[in-house]
Amino acid sequence: MSERQPAAPRPLPPDELGFERIVYEKAPPRATITLNRPELLNAFDFQMLRELARACEDASWDDAIRVVVVTGAGRAFCVGANLKEWAESYVGKPNEYWKWFGAFKDMHDRLREIGKPTLARINGIAVGGGNELQMACDLAVMVDDAFIRHVGPEHGSVPAGGATQWLTIMVGDRRAREIVLMCEEIPAAKAAEWGLVNWAVPAAELDAKVDAVVENLVRKLPQTTRYAKQHLNFWRDLAWHETINHARDWLALSMATDEPKAAIERFLEKK
Question: How many angstroms from the chain centroid is the CA of residue 185?
Answer without folding.
Answer: 18
